[in-house]
Amino acid sequence: TATLLHCLVQASEKAAAIARLCRSENALFELLVQEKTGGDKNKKFVSDFKTLADVLIQEVIKHDVGVKFPVLVGHIHGEENSKFTNGLGESETVRVCASVADTAVLLTRILDGNARAGQLLAHAVHVEPEIMVDHRIRGLRLDEPPNNLAIWVDPIDSTNQYIQGGYNMSEHTRPHSQGLPCVTVLIGVYERIGGLPVMGVVNQPFVHYDGENGRWSGNVFWGVCCNGEQASSLSPPDSTSPADTFSLVLSSSEDRAFRSTLEEAFGPDNIYLAAGAGYKELCVAKGLASVFVSSEDGGTYMWDSCGPHALLRALGGGIVRLKSCLEDYRHKGPSALASTPQIRYHKPLLSREGAQQWANEGGLVAYSSDKSLCAVIEALAQACGPDDTTT
Ligand code: 2IP
Ligand code: CA
Ligand code: CA
């Protein structure tokens, strides 16, 4: 399994390289930021290149992991569908071909004859990024057989920020509210039976900008939690530090009343707003916030949380459904929180259709320690009163 982790880190680095390329090469960037103006010319042209970038990255991850781990083929799922449809309704299946040349031909056709863009992308699809060997991964002894496992991929989380761009240099010790650092590539491995997340990679393609060469570099984080083994590229947050204040990170589109409740309970200065579900979960793993709470049913999906969830479990935290926590707390008291089940990733919601089948039902809480989970649930339960389970 340590080789699987290495393979996932490598796949995430290739994904990050493709994401950076689409912003650094003019031939691609122009397509990425192109406004949809309607009209057939624009429709025939790639009406939604950002979707193509998403689909392509997802297919690259599926391909690269599948080649090394054939037992995982058919068990790697993602947000996107491999069929890409342009504005005229013409569909083509995006895939990694046997050679750079073949992939370039396919992508050029999808890009309505834009050979320069097709070749640039094909090259990035086939070149192996150089990654530093992480000795901590080498040293892991994990014996979960890959034929018990399946994967959720979000090829680009926070697409809006990816398209918009931007970077606020001043934010180092608190979460970025928006901009390229909120963009992540999320890969999460879960058990086919039981659905617990056991291994996760969160890649942040845009972290440092080198003004001299105009290039971005990123960070990659991983965590493993299976068979009693917990390991991560991050260290567990130091909860004994006296300066440790409780803080929360929320979506800027979080329900106003819900946000106000939290502001009253914890003080407005301890609430941060940030873009990207994956990024907010990463902020919790990094200790930039104690919890990420989302009250919206369907605000996030399995692919938004599986990878970061494994990372959090590796650090002694987790992700649970907000609604079930509040119910447990109200009916059984604070001690029930210790046994609130972790979100599972293997079963669709049969009462729903399409992508909604994979929504994180009833909102979520991502936390770095049981203490943080209790603090936020206690505050919400008290604020909402004993009978209100609608939150
Ligand atoms: C989105 C993206 C959004 C996020 C939403 C995700 O994924 O991360 O930013 O909303 O939850 O599903 P918010 O930023 O308000 O938290 P994608 O970009 O993959 O659609
Ligand atoms: Ca997402
Ligand atoms: Ca996405």
Provide a brief overview of the structure.
With 391 residues, the protein is an alpha+beta fold. The chain contains 13 helices and 13 strands.
What does this structure look like?
The protein is an alpha+beta fold and 391 residues long. Helix content is 38%, strand content 19%. Strands 1-4-5-6-7-8 form a six-stranded mixed sheet, sandwiched between helices. It has a five-stranded mixed sheet with strand order 10-9-11-13-12, with helices on both faces. A two-stranded antiparallel sheet has the order 2-3. The longest helix is centred in the first third of the chain and has 23 residues. It is globular. The structure holds D-MYO-inositol-1,4-bisphosphate (2IP) and calcium ion (CA) (2 copies). The site of one calcium ion has 7 residues, from strand 4.
Percent of sequence in beta strands? 15-25%
The end-to-end distance, rounded to whole angstroms, is 39 Å
Computed CA radius of gyration, to the nearest angstrom = 21 Å
Distinct ligand kinds? D-MYO-inositol-1,4-bisphosphate, calcium ion
Secondary structure tally, helices: 13
- Order of strands, main sheet, comes to 1-4-5-6-7-8
Q: What is the average of the pLDDT values?
A: 89
DSSP helix fraction = 25-40%
Order of helices and strands: HHHHEEEHHHEHEEEEEHEHEHEHEH
Q: How many E-type strands?
A: 13
